[in-house]
Amino acid sequence: MNSFQTLMQQDIKNLSPEPKVMGFSGSPRKGGNSDILLSHILNGVSENRLPADSLRLADCEFQPCIGCERCRKDKICTAHVDGMSFLYPKIITSMGLVLVCPTHNYNITAWMKAFIDRLYCFYNFEKNRPSAWSSRLADQGRKAVIAAVCEQENKEDMGFTIDAMRLPLEALGYEIIGELDVLGTFAKAKVKEQTSTLIRAAELGSDLAKSIGE
User: Fold this and answer.
1) Which is nearest to 188 in space by CA: 159, 149, 155?
2) What is the 3-state secondary structure (H, E, C) of 16-56?
3) pLDDT digits (tens, 9 = 90+) for 155-193
4) What is the rounded distance in angstroms from the CA atom of residue 204 to the CA atom of residue 128?
5) How far apart are CA 23 and CA 90, in angstroms?
6) ω before 130 within 30° of 0 (cis)?
7) What is the distance between the alpha carbons of residues 136 and 114, in angstroms, rounded to a whole number?
């Protein structure tokens, strides 16, 4: 393990969740519907005087999980030193998490999938097979909101998009405060014309902030 990885491990061990929210957009289209929804959700957070920050995953250079299992011992991903290495502290210290993603072929985008897979390092595994496991992020009052955008008008055409975000977050120990599925929306920034959707997005952000403040 190199000195940077050692420093990352030492720093992360000393971090704890704080009353703030981190949001991630899984869309490769800058300024598109996912980015706009994320912005409105986080505006709802900020209106409740809770710090909120965001990042487009497509702007962050990071590799997918390679299944090396080194994180079972190191307790953080040490196979890669990349953009995720700098995102881990943001995730650990944020009690609130927001994930927004468009539907790509009945599922989340490659960027969102790679991001979620790299959260695998937060699990503890026992030595038996199949391994019993637990999450180091659990029982810390963590909350999350998820949202997805789909061109088609039937929710069935969204496929696994919502589930692919909800299920991993629940396994990690997050309580899902709310979900938003936006259907029939494809053209860039089209969601700006959907006032009720944007209001709902802000409400979800407000609900998230209030749940963290309880």
Assistant:
1) 149
2) CCEEEEEEEECCCCCCCHHHHHHHHHHHHHHCCCCCEEEEE
3) 999 999 999 999 999 999 999 999 999 999 999 999 999
4) 40
5) 10
6) yes
7) 20
Q: How confident is the model at residue 86 (pLDDT cuts 50, 70, 90)?
A: very high
Distance of CA 186 to the CA centre of its chain: 22
Structure token pair of residue 29 = 């289209």
Pair of tokens at residue 157: 């055409």
Write down the residue that tokens 């496991």 correspond to. 133
Question: How far apart are the C-alpha atoms of 91 and 137, rounded to whole Å?
Answer: 10
d(CA 104, CA 107): 5
Q: What's the token pair of residue 167?
A: 């299920």
SS (H, E, C) 166-212: HHHHHHHCCEEEEEEEECCCCCCCHHHHCHHHHHHHHHHHHHHHHHH
Domains and CATH numbers, the chain: 3-10+19-213 (3.40.50.360)
Alpha-carbon gap, residue 39 to 185, rounded angstroms: 17
Question: What is the per-residue pLDDT across 95-116, written as a single tens digit (0 to 9) for each?
Answer: 999 999 999 999 999 999 999 9
pLDDT of 1 higher than 60: no
Let me know how many helices (H) and strands (E) the chain has, helices first.
Answer: 7, 7
Cα–Cα distance measured from residue 87 to residue 80, given in angstroms and rounded to the nearest whole number: 13
